[in-house]
Write a structure and sequence with these properties.
281 residues, alpha/beta, elongated, GTPase activator activity, LRR_dom_sf, repeat, leucine-rich repeat
Length: 281
Amino acid sequence: MGLQTRVHEKLGVRPPRNVDVSGSRGLSAQNIFLFLEGLPAQLQHITLDSVVVKDPAFIRFLEGRLKAAGKGGSALNSVAFAEESLSRLEAPEVFPLLLPLLEHLCLKGNILGRVGCAALGEAFRSGRASRLRTLDLEETGIDWHQLNILLQAFRWTWCPTRLEAVNLYESLYQLEVLLRSFQRSDVPVLLENLNLSGNPLGDLGMNVLSRLLYVLWCRGARVRVLKLRRCECTEDGVEDLARVIRGGWLSCLETLDLEDVARAAFFSSFAEPEGKAFPFL
């Protein structure tokens, strides 16, 4: 039994499960990592900032947690990056080591760019993100081009991933062939919470997203929370989303956030009155 465990038992103090080391002014990265390395295996959630993420020791920390998780010695399953702490430069190194650990990932306020989106997509394509249930991409600068980069990574994925989608430019026939293949797959998709708020998706991005939601349903996902605030789409974009709902592919939805989106056009796509048809709004 280690010294740390004996101290916890002697003092009767439960080890922390959630730790926030963002905004740690005055502390060097070396001191922060000394603190992180001393945290117990029961740690479940951690919030990080650029001081930690941009230090080479962060990669070693992730490697250690990943190795421990493989032996059942790490409970870490949730990570949030403070705003402007992760960039396209760190993403290709961080995602392959981090995503195998996680069920919840928050990237809010971190501009990923095409390189970062490609790195995230590759993590899904390779199966490293197979446990992910919550993905927060609010204000990450994703437009329809970058969203399409993500979707292309899932296009021919047959390994256990949680997200599948198709290229925006697929013909309807090719799309249906792909969807039928996904429907026959026994691999479950467990994504429940998706946040794309504050991104300039536009109508093309909503079209890509609607295809994604359809494929998720075909793979067994039951999305419960979908946040699309301030996505810069018009009536045409919300019509694509309404089509997904009318088809029954979001029947488990509990929260749908359409702040500053064309809500009137969305509701007009349905015969039911606003309050009666959409208890989740």
